Recover the amino acids of this structure.
């Protein structure tokens, strides 16, 4: 279904309808109009579709509450506010890409999991663009997403890919769900969850099934000078780039290649390759839209309160199997797909970490 | 984990004594993490006549302050800074990006600028 924010004049016409088959739509439109848009703490919108009997179906759904700020090349936050929810496009590519990307990510979380934003309570989605000079990064600072412009030699900017925007927003979702300490294995899981839902938001926007998807993170943020497709591949960790300057994608695809390092908070962006591949394998086995089967299992695992901030790979794997059993049944294909995926990447079967699922 | 260590850690082999040709000050900066997870490293080996300026930059940094952490952020850079001044002084610190301010920022900027000058020249 396409979503659009219905303009007020159209809402007014629907609200005034007297035909019996439009009664529900009229009521929803009146409810939407009754809210003072500028002062509402929680935003909603009217979604219209045609029901099976040909009648107009109207439902209210939450709407994102986005504010984009511009740091104007300085490394200070939040910067100057340039676009809020009811404002027209700014004409600035990064600001408008961030605005649209947050909207697409919000729609993904609502459509797929009925999650109302980062906090599941319609809270604000805050982003700053043009942070720093030649700044080669995008990050989550605990409150907002921050995007640099890149140096123009390696990176072209970090708002070009929905996977990056959805990755950053998902760091907020993970924190709201109880958090995963950003160090070692729990940190690599935190990273992996951001990559998983970053990829799923992109697949959802494109309407792709698991076998149609690229499973890449950050496609389009490298300049043409870089020999690489993207920053990471969930399906084939370690193959995203191989460049003279950057070197080769260092992500492992299996526990036997787990990288021990003090940098990068213990290799959180490196070892995330292992759980990333487990997710992609499970999704490819199950087929269809990856956000519906494997994605639902990962989402429920993250948000059901069963994880601790120091959950490691083995505990997370066991938790996803438990979730699959609860959602689909112990003998379901979902359970075997998830268990097989964790086995294939060596998280189950390694005697250091093996434990029964339930 | 972030930490600040001084002086030289045990695992490092003893460095050569400075003599003619070996610079009195060496500052190495390594940046890890970030969304891309790419490691970058820079080193400054200033000439002897610049050493006092660099010693001043180094001494203004709070090397012995307790570890600083940034638990609520993600995808930020992590910085490792190591400064050697002559045979007896070898300091190092690990800092989250948020802590790279004031004298730390000045020292790191000086190393990046020194590197850029050398790669052009």
């Amino acid at each position: 279904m396409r979503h659009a924010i219905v303009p007020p004049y159209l809402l007014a016409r629907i609200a005034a309808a007297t035909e019996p088959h439009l009664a529900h739509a009229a009521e929803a439109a009146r409810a939407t109009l009754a809210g003072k848009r500028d002062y509402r703490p929680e935003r909603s919108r009217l979604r219209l579709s045609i029901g099976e009997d040909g009648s107009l179906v109207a439902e209210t759904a939450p709407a994102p509450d986005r504010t984009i700020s511009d740091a104007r090349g300085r490394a200070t936050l939040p910067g100057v506010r340039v676009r809020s929810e009811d404002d027209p496009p700014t004409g600035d590519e990064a600001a408008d890409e961030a605005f649209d990307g947050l909207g697409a990510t919000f729609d993904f979380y609502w459509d797929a999991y009925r999650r109302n934003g980062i906090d599941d309570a319609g809270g604000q989605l805050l982003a700053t663009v043009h942070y720093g000079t030649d700044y080669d990064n995008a990050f989550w600072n605990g409150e907002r997403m921050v995007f640099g412009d890149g140096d123009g030699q390696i990176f072209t900017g970090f708002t070009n890919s929905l996977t990056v925007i959805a990755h950053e927003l998902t760091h907020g979702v993970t924190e709201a769900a109880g958090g995963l300490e950003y160090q070692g294995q729990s940190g690599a899981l935190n990273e992996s969850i951001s990559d998983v839902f970053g990829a799923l938001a992109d697949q959802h926007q494109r309407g792709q099934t698991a076998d149609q998807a690229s499973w890449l993170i950050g496609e389009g943020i490298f300049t043409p000078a870089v020999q690489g497709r993207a920053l990471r591949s969930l399906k084939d960790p370690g193959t995203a780039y191989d460049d003279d300057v950057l070197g080769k994608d260092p992500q492992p695809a299996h526990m036997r290649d787990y990288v021990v390092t003090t940098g990068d908070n213990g290799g959180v962006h490196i070892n995330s390759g292992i759980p990333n591949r487990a997710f992609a394998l499970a999704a490819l086995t199950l087929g269809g839209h990856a956000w519906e089967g494997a994605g639902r299992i990962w989402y429920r695992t993250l948000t059901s309160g069963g994880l601790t901030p120091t959950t490691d790979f083995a505990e997370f794997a066991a938790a996803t199997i438990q979730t699959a059993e609860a959602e689909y049944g112990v003998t379901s294909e979902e359970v075997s797909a998830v268990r097989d995926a964790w086995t294939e990447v060596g998280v189950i079967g390694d005697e250091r970490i093996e434990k029964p699922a339930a | 984990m972030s930490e600040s260590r001084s002086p030289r850690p045990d695992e490092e082999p003893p460095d050569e004594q400075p003599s003619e040709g070996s610079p009195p000050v060496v500052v190495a900066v390594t940046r890890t993490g970030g969304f891309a997870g790419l490691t970058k490293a820079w080193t400054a080996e200033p000439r002897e006549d610049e050493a006092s300026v660099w010693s001043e930059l180094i001494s203004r940094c709070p090397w012995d302050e307790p570890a600083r952490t940034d638990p609520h952020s993600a995808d930020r850079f992590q910085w490792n800074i190591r400064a050697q001044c002559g045979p007896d002084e070898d300091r190092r610190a690990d800092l989250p990006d948020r802590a790279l301010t004031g004298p730390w920022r000045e020292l790191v900027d000086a190393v990046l600028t020194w590197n850029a000058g050398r790669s052009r020249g």
Summary: The domain at 184-344 of chain A is CATH 1.10.390.10 (Neutral Protease; domain 2). Confidence is low (pLDDT under 50) at residues 351-358 of chain A. Chain A has ten helices and eleven strands. The interface with chain B takes residues 136-142, 155, 158, 164, 167-168, 171, 175, 181-183, 190-191, 194, 218, 231, 246, 250, 261-265, 268-270 of chain A (CB under 8 Å).
